[in-house]
Structure formats: C-alpha cells, structure tokens
Amino acid sequence: MSRIVVTEFVSLDGVMEDPGGAEGSKHGGWTFKFDRGAEGNKFKVDELFAADALLLGRVTYQGFAKAWPSIKDPDGFADKMNSIRKYVVSNTLKDSEATWNNTTVIRGDVTAEIARLKAQAGGDMLVAGSARLAHTLIEHGLVDDYRLMVFPVILGSGKRMFPDLDKVATLKLVDAKTAGDGIVMLTYQAA
After folding, report:
1. For the whole model, what pTM was predicted?
2. How would you class 17 by CB atoms within 10 Å of its CB: exposed for 0-12, middle for 13-18, buried for 19 or more?
3. Which of 29, 117, 164, 180 qualifies as a cystine partner to 35, CB 3.0-4.6 A?
4. CA end-to-end distance (rounded Å), the chain
5. Starting from the edge strand earliest in sequence, which strands make up the sheet with 103-106, in order?
6. Domain extent at residue 28
7. Residue 21 maps to which CATH number?
8. 26-63 per-position pLDDT tens digit
9. Count: domains in the chain
10. For 53-92, what is each residue's pLDDT tens digit?
C-alpha cells in the first residue's frame, strides 16, 4: 500500500500560497526571505528520494513542468524530480499538455482514483503545493503524513493549508526539528 504525504511550505498563520513566487500572488516568493540551512535542505532531499511518485494539481504541475526540466544540480534532486512518476489531477489539462516525463493525468472521480492508487503496492506519493487537491485529500481522509516546513512569517492572507472540515482530524506528531532561519519542520501522521 502506498502512502500519501502532503508536504508544504507554510507560514505561521497557515498560508501555503505561492511560496516560490511563480504565481504572482500578493505575497509570492515569501520563502526566499529565509535560509533553510543544511538541515532544511536535507529534509526536502530525503523526502523526495524516499518517494515513488508526485501527486499534483494542475497549477503546481504546470509550474514544476516548466521549471524542473531545465534545472541541473550536483545532488541529483532535479534528476529525481524529472524521472519520478507524476500524477496530475485535472479535468482541464489535455494529455498533449502533460508532457513532463512520466506523467499520467487523473480525471473524473478523483478520490476513487487516488484511493485506488493508494491501495497499490509502492512508496510515498508526495503532494506539494496543489491547495485544492490537498484540501480534497484532507477532506476525504486520504492523507497519511503531513510534512510541514513552517516559516517564521505571518502573511495575513492567501490560500490556507487546511480547509474547513465537518469533523475533527486528529494527528500524531512524529518529528519536530528546527532549521536555518527559525524554520520548524513538523511531521504528523493521521491518528
């Protein structure tokens, strides 16, 4: 059975929107004001190399697909991003637009299809960015782990990490560390 891991950059007030600045939002690029340090970089490298697939929404997918194929790095992070299996959830993205290596488009009954993928043997499926997708997965109880890098900034507005829920979701803290410029790295599992 695969595990779904939602991994996000989050402000102290829960905003996850446009941490890299590619979407042109009001606070876009807010993570660049902070140094993650060696421990923060290792956190991201370790989670990617432990994963078997990326599970992304259309906007995040298109941003990643535009950037990652041209990136070269000595630690192999870009090679892993470019070679890993990718599932993009979208009813509007055409197959002809899903050209980033190793991509499958998921359409229709998203929760049923993701539950089917999750039931198959395999490792972690990482969900990065992809606010609407993350909200859907949270609402349907499909998330196994949350890996959050909480940055010491209050943005005051933007897309929030967690949706309004009808029922309480209890989590278990399995790891907490600090890195770089006061970034807190939290790992929770669904209880």
Report:
1. 0.93
2. buried
3. 180
4. 17
5. 103-106, 85-89, 51-57, 124-128, 3-11, 145-151, 183-190, 171-179
6. 3-190
7. 3.40.430.10
8. 998 999 999 999 999 999 999 999 999 999 999 999 99
9. 1
10. 999 999 999 999 999 999 988 889 999 999 999 999 999 9
